[in-house]
Amino acid sequence: MTQGAVVEAALTGVHREEWARVVASLARRFADLDLAEEMAAEAFAAAAERWPSDGVPPNPGAWITTTANRKAIDRLRRESQRDAKHREALMLYDDTPVESVGAIDDDRLRLLFICCHPALAMEARVALTLRMLGGLTVDEIARAFLVGEAAMSRRITRAKDKIRTARIPYRMPQAQDLPARLDGVLAVLYLVFNEGYLATGDTSQPIRRDLTTEAIRLTRLTRSLLPREGEVTGLLALMLLIEARAATRLSKSGELVRLDEQDRGSWDRAMIDEGIALVRERLDVVARGDGMPGRYQILAAINAVHTSVPDARDTDWSQIVELYDQLTLIDPSPVVALNRAIALAELDGPSVGLGAVDRLTDDLDGYHAFHAARADLLRRLGRSAEAREAYDRAIALAGNSAEVAYLARRRGQLAG
Questions:
Q1: How far is Cα 34 from Cα 3, in angstroms, rounded to an integer?
Q2: How far is CA 207 from the centre of its chain?
Q3: C-alpha span between 282 and 259 (Å, rounded)
Q4: Which residue range(s) make up the domain with 148?
Q5: Domain for residue 213, yes or no?
Q6: Of 49, 242, 257, 372, which shows the fewest CB atoms inside 10 Å?
Q7: Which of 160, 191, 222 is the last residue of a domain?
């Protein structure tokens, strides 16, 4: 491997593993999200400039962190209007390399709860945290929200301005404040996990297990803070049941493998057992009359149905449709309706499913999964010309290379 390839691989790895920690530690220290993000980015730019000649340092994460801190101090020195913050930072600063920290560090969890302050609109909380904590690009976040990149950039900027003008403190909220921020925290964790499960960036790896692993870690920490919150338990169960299948989701050629075609013997049984145990724990609580299941608990139950049978042909689709009916009552979104329609097609046939999918055209015409679902149902009905058009539209909208490869192969198999 050439020196340039070594440096590129090191930069990619350290950005994936350390971005969130570096931003979180800078935000805690300097109480400024813009400064934290900008100095982290400058530190990575400095690494890209210096490592090709100096070599990759023994501890790349520590190098990035130390460089980012130095750059933040230099920035504060140049800004005389921030003298107080400058003096405080200098008192904290020394030249000792910062050692990379382990999984017990909670800077990222602290930043997660800070960005999910109830003073921010829910969508702003989620978008800001995905940028600061997940390291997602604005374009990737915009795709997750099905909005334009420019609109998402404005949303993130407004959220940062709100934190600054409202003087929201950069510290872990008190225990009594956590529940008010929980919805946003869980939404962020779920979206970070989803980006890892099926990455949207054109240049991203199709599956980013660094993101799914980090989302699971932070969800476990959140559950330790709020063990009686059913939705935290539900989200953890959901993530585990999905992550258990990760090793089987890509073919050797890099193509996405559908759930019904995956090698179930290669699933992670320990994760599945833990996830199903958490689902049953919540079912027992609901059976005792102690609350009703929320969105993540129902999604976890749906995935438990999928993973609890040894063969996809044994899937209880009637139970899955019933669970989607429950989910629709609390989350009547077009995406939930699409997933229900896909399950309905397995229960009552592709014609019934297609009718339900087509009713969502106005809401989901810009969503690749909508066109992929239509294409599959049209293919099963023998309507090849229409299926080809739907596959073309899905491929044009999809941002994941493995999914594009799968859709292209299915399109190529159409009759005529």
A1: 33
A2: 11
A3: 25
A4: 107-191
A5: no
A6: 49
A7: 191
